[in-house]
Amino acid sequence: MDSIQIFLKILSLFFMLVSMALIGWMLITFRRVRSISALTCIVSMVITSLIFAVYWIIIGTNLHWIILLALVLLGMSLGFLMGQTTKVWVEEGKKKAKNTIWYLIIWAACYLLTQTLVSMGHALSLNVGIGAIVLGTGVTVGSQGNIFLRLLLLSPKAPEKNMARVSKESPPTTRFCRQCGSRTKPKARFCSKCGAEI
Predict the structure, then answer these.
(1) 76, 92, 166, 172 — which has fewest CB within 10 A?
(2) Ramachandran region of residue 89, left (φ > 0), alpha (ψ -120 to 50) or beta?
(3) Beta strands of 9-62 (E only): which ranges?
(4) Please, is 164 exposed, middle or buried when counting C-beta atoms within 10 Å of its C-beta (0-12, 13-18, 19+)?
(5) pLDDT over 50 (residue 161)
(6) What does the angle CA 13 – CA 18 – CA 21 come to, to the nearest 5 degrees?
(7) Are 102 and 84 spatial neighbours (Cβ–Cβ below 8 Å)?
């Protein structure tokens, strides 16, 4: 066994342990409300892309570029759906996010697909297994890119101004959306205009 194979086995074991720790942490915390910024999305996309680049340099690939492109597009599409299931809003001038159960379902599907590609890669050769990394990178870029764009569209001050303006014109029992300031139905859970949770 040469030094590159030993290095790859150690690297693989390290990432497996990190992955298991992250999975456990995500299952415990995925529904918690958290503060978020556009910068955190950018950092996540950059780190994932750097990890992909390191693997690409070390392993290389025999996969045709059409297959790699298809995996990237599939990953980005699944990631976009994942990002869409994350609720983002402004609360007290801070941008917040919360994942839904659909986020977990799509994440599980992506994880199973990635593990299938990893197994196929081990059965065929290491440089075919990079397909899983390509897919995973696409998922991260798609989900974080979606959240990043939605965060850019949020204005931390506009909803508060709208709520202040509308509350002067309406009785105090009327409810308003925290995100866009629209008037909502008394027992509504979600805003009919922007879809944010009330």
Answers:
(1) 172
(2) beta
(3) 34-35
(4) exposed
(5) no
(6) 125
(7) no
